Amino acid sequence: MVTPVIRTVDLRSDTVTKPTESMRSAMANAEVDDDVLGSDPTAVLLEREVAEIAGKEAAMFVPSGTMGNLISVLVHCDERGSEVILGDDSHIHIYENGGVSSLGGVHPRTVKNEGDGTMEISSIEAAVRSPKGDLHYPVTKLICLENTQANCGGRCLPIEYIDKVGELAKKHGLKLHIDGARIFNASVALGVPVKRIVQAADSVSICLSKGIGAPVGSVIVGSRKFITKARWLRKTLGGGMRQIGVLCAAALVALRENVAKLEDDHKKAKILAEGLNRIERLKVNVAAVETNIIYVDLPEDPKFGAEDACKSLEVLGVLVIPQTTFRIRIVLHHQISDSDLEYVLSCFEKLSSSVPEEKV
Amino acid sequence: MVMRIVDLRSDTVTRPTNAMREAMASAEVDDDVLGYDPTARRLEEEMAKMMGKEAALFVPSGTMGNLICVMVHCDVRGSEVILGDTCHIHVYENGGISTIGGVHPKTIRNEEDGTMDLGAIEEAIRDPKGSTFYPSTRLICLENTHANSGGRCLSADYTDRVGEIAKRHGLKLHIDGARIFNASVALGVPVHRLVTAADSVSVCLSKGLGAPIGSVIVGSQSFIEKAKTLRKTLGGGMRQIGVLCAAALVALQENLPKLQSDHKKTKLLAEGLNKMKGIRVNVAAMETNMIFMDMEDGSRLTAEKLRKSLTEHGILVIPENSSRIRMVIHHQITASDVHYTLSCLQQAVQTIQESCQN
């Protein structure tokens, strides 16, 4: 029997956020110009604002976080035979189609991501190619961190850790890039301004279309020189868009109105995590839920895995993503209400009671 | 002092109209990466239909449109693409097909009318028997209208002939149709007829049609599926793009019919310019919305001097070289702007020539 869907609660990602009324109004009234032939005035405003927030010299709007990371890696690794050190569970390595290699010719050297999203400092150091110029080795140019680290559950990298990695990078003449898709979440959770978190970084990629809810885009930040090179590469990749003020206007609203709401998303995530963990047969590492991402573990029953669970939940209108065979991912955002949480919990309860018992 | 601005640098400078702004504000949207954006889908379905192809995909720019198409067709290492030596892909796209895509270009001379000699194209195709030394030709690219030739139209007949060559040699045909609608209007040929022979086309929304952002590529279902992955890889996978697609749908509805008028204004401007002493315009060659204005030898006019003088009157143009200026007409240029441009230019020409005499 199919339960009629009376509501949809989309927890697949914080990218599903739709533009708010104030964003729509801002988009309609945005002052625009050709950002390729010259510069779009609203884009300039946004870029200035984000550069200021991140404490860097300059910034540039890009269509996506993937392009933000791709450009950053390629600009830092502009020499043939470059290598980048990054986490084996990082977004760049897992979910960006291997673009740094297939498009950029950059070789990845992965280091294990620990449960908390960090990589062991000594392991990073061991991965740096030495001596430089060895006939067998590419040249290490860059270290990438991800904050918050998504695959580890939206974990925040502590500032002291980032600073230490920065020192390591400097010691070996390397650059440091931070995939800060959810850097605002980290900032709010840690109670530390973004610019302090990313102080040690040469570049950061920051998403506008995730938790802060703008419809499209990311911004990369760095030195003026870096951004000048980045602009050229953005054009080459095909990211040179014309009257982008339309999109940047929405982003300015997002920065103004939605950064403050992230704290709420984290609170809801904690409430949901605790509630889910209390449901029989479900397990959530509540202490590890630091921001807006939750992993729910199912019993390892081959007859009912995460995919089956997601399908069952979909029938009830709850959209989540199977992360691994027995793990479900849930992402909170500002368009999820308290009543949505209650509904989700009740759906998971229904799910748990319908999970088939071990057949004899 | 509020100066009147007449921006003739490109048809990309068009700003969204009120109808577009309204459409953007009220657009139905969703996450086009996790699933699909409903307004994007509507636009893509409409474009595929107009172009007579199976499927379509919204992309952030014409550069990405062309890059994706070349790379999808040339997906084998050691591929080569045949294209015009003054075509946009080769001259203005940062060599991306090579630096990003690893594809080798083989250029053929573009004739004045934007075509490439058919014999020369065929000769440029690599003999598979020479494979120890040769890359493997996979693709031919045409550009319609051809910008660097002055917005010249390639006929359906010529395009079909190139298509036949491609088929005969097992190659694909891609058309950089940034301004394909201008060609369609100027030739009086439906756009799907112009691209029948093509395996893929890249069509700009942000040029003459006046949408704020984007292009659409069209092709077969399987081509577009591969294109979608490559779009994501390049970083063109954007989320709630319905905002932008809504404006594009308005553009198709409202501005497509205006292209004819752009061509008329272009002819008017071209004829007026050609009458000026020291200026030469090949009026017959101005088929769509672009003008190349040449300074005659001995006229003492230079592109830079004229550009500077025009800027002082709020008229923006782009010098192509030291004695050539490019002007592009679009729907936000009025007939009065055309007359204003002519009178300012006449003034500028006289001033420069008189000052040189002293």
What's the quick description here?
The complex is a heterodimer of chains A (360) and B (358). Chain A has 360 residues and is of the alpha/beta class.
Describe the secondary structure blueprint for this structure.
The complex is a heterodimer of chains A (360) and B (358).
Chain A lengths: L8 E2 L10 H9 L11 H14 L3 E5 L2 H12 L5 E6 L3 H5 L3 H4 L4 E5 L9 H7 L11 E8 L12 H13 L3 E6 L2 H8 L3 H4 L5 E5 L10 E5 L1 H14 L7 H13 L4 H17 L14 E5 L8 H10 L2 E2 L1 E4 L2 E5 L6 H17 L6
Parallel strand pairs in A: 1-10, 3-4, 3-5, 5-6, 6-7
Antiparallel strand pairs in A: 2-8, 7-8, 9-12, 11-12
Chain B lengths: L5 E2 L10 H8 L12 H14 L3 E5 L2 H12 L5 E6 L3 H5 L3 H4 L4 E5 L9 H7 L11 E8 L12 H13 L3 E6 L2 H8 L3 H4 L5 E5 L10 E5 L1 H14 L7 H13 L4 H16 L4 E2 L9 E6 L7 H10 L2 E2 L1 E4 L2 E5 L6 H23 L1
Parallel strand pairs in B: 1-11, 3-4, 3-5, 5-6, 6-7
Antiparallel strand pairs in B: 2-8, 7-8, 9-10, 10-13, 12-13
Question: Would you give an account of this structure?
Answer:
- The complex is a heterodimer of chains A (about 350) and B (about 350).
- Chain A is an alpha/beta fold.
- Chain A is built from 14 helices and twelve strands.
- Chain A has helices at about 20-30, 40-55, 65-75, 90-95, 100, 120-125, 160-170, 185-190, 195, 225-235, 245-255, 260-280, 305-315, 340-355, and strands spanning about 10, 60, 80-85, 105-110, 140-145, 175-180, 205, 220, 295, 320, 320-325, 325-330.
- The two termini of chain A are about 25 Å apart.
- Chain B has about 350 residues and is of the alpha/beta class.
- Helices cover about 40% and strands about 15% of the residues of chain B.
- Chain B has helices at about 20-25, 40-50, 60-75, 90, 95-100, 120-125, 155-170, 180-185, 190-195, 220-235, 240-255, 260-275, 305-310, 335-355; strands at about 5, 55-60, 80-85, 105-110, 135-145, 170-175, 200-205, 215-220, 280, 290-295, 315, 320, 325-330.
- A seven-stranded mixed β-sheet of chain B has the order 2-8-7-6-5-3-4, with helices on both faces. In chain B, strands 9-10-13-12 form a four-stranded antiparallel β-sheet.
- The longest helix of chain B has 23 residues, at about 335-355.
- The two termini of chain B are about 30 Å apart.
- The mean pLDDT of chain B is about 95.
- The chains are: A alpha/beta (about 350), B alpha/beta (about 350).
- Chains A and B meet through helix 1, helix 3, helix 10 and helix 11 of A and helix 1, helix 3, helix 10 and helix 11 of B.
